[in-house]
Amino acid sequence: MAALAVLAAAGCSSGAGAAPKITTTARAGVAPTPPEKGAYFGAWVPPGIGGGPKAPSPGRTSATPSGGSSAKPAVKDADRPGMAPVVGFERELGRQLDIVQNYAGWKAPFPGDLDSSVLDGNRYLLLTWGGADTREIVQGTHDELIRDRARAIKATGKPVFLRWSRDMDKKSAQAKVHSATDFIAAWKHLRAIFKQEKVDNVAWVWCPSARGFGSGNAGSFYPGDGEVDWICADAQPGGDYDYRDLSEAVKLFMEWARGRAKPIMIAEFGVPRSYGERRAEWLRAAAKTLQDPQIKAVVYFDSDEQAEDARDKRRAFSVTGDKRAVSALRELATTPYFNPRNLPVTSD
After folding, report:
1. Per-residue pLDDT, 25
2. Region Disordered: which residues (predicted)?
3. pTM of the predicted structure, to 2 decimals
C-alpha cells in the first residue's frame, strides 16, 4: 500500500535507549504519518463528558490536517454533530487535539456523526473498529461489509488512523479471535481487501494491551512489519494496583517495540480517580515517560465508562472536575513535544 516513508526518530527521552529509524507503509500526505519530531496528542472524549460510568462507546476534502490560526478550539466547532464534548475538553486543555478517537462496532455504519465532524475539520480521526470472528473473516463471510467500509473510508479523502480489533490478546476476546495465527490471517485479509479497493488514506494501527507483554504473549499476534504502520498499546495502570506509574505499565511493551522500526502510539492511557491527589503527580511523570523518541502519538482516555458503578474509582479516568489533574494534563498537552504541528495554545 502506497510508498514507504522513513523518519529518523528524534526528540527528548526519559532515559530510554535509542529508538530505531521509523518506517511506515502509509503514504505521506494521504495517510497519517508520524511527525518528524515529537508526538501527536489526542483523546477519547465520550458523549456526555463527565456523565459517570458505562457511557456508551460508540466527511470532506483531501487536505492533510495542518496548524494555523484556525486550529484554535473554536465555538463554531462545538456546533458540529458530536463535537461539543470534544471542544469542551479542548478548552480545558487550552489547545485543539491532534487526534480525536471514536469507537465503532464491527457492523456499525461509517462515517457516524462524530467521524464526519472530525474529518470535516483539521483533526485526525482515530477509528477504533471492533473485531469479528477471525475465522469467518478469512473464509470470506464478511467480505462485503469489509469492502463497504474500505470504500467509505476512501471516500472521505482524509487521513484516518484505523485501529482494528484492539486488545486482541485478552482472554475476553478469545472466543472471536481464536488464536494468534487466526488473528494474523484475518488482519492480512482485511488489508488485502483495502488494497484491492486502493485505499491509500489509512494508517493501520496494531494495538494489543500493554499488560499482554507481561502476563500473556501479545507479541505473537503481530502480523509483521510489512502489514503494520503503527504499533500501539492500551496502557491504563490497571484496577488491581493501588498506584502504578505509566512507565511500569508500558515497560515490557516498550522493550518489545525497540525491536520494530515502527512509530508507537499509546492509544488509551489514563490516571484513575482512585489516585486522588497523586493524579497530578502521575500525569507529570507520564509526560516524561511519553517523551520517548519512538512514541509519535498519545491518546488520553478521558472516560469513566469502564467503571462498574459510581464508587469504582479505579477504572474512572475522566479528569473533569479535578482541577489539579486538569492542570497537569494541560501541562502535558501543551508541552512542545506533544504539539508538533504548533497548534495555538490559549491561556484561558
Report:
1. 77
2. 28-81
3. 0.88
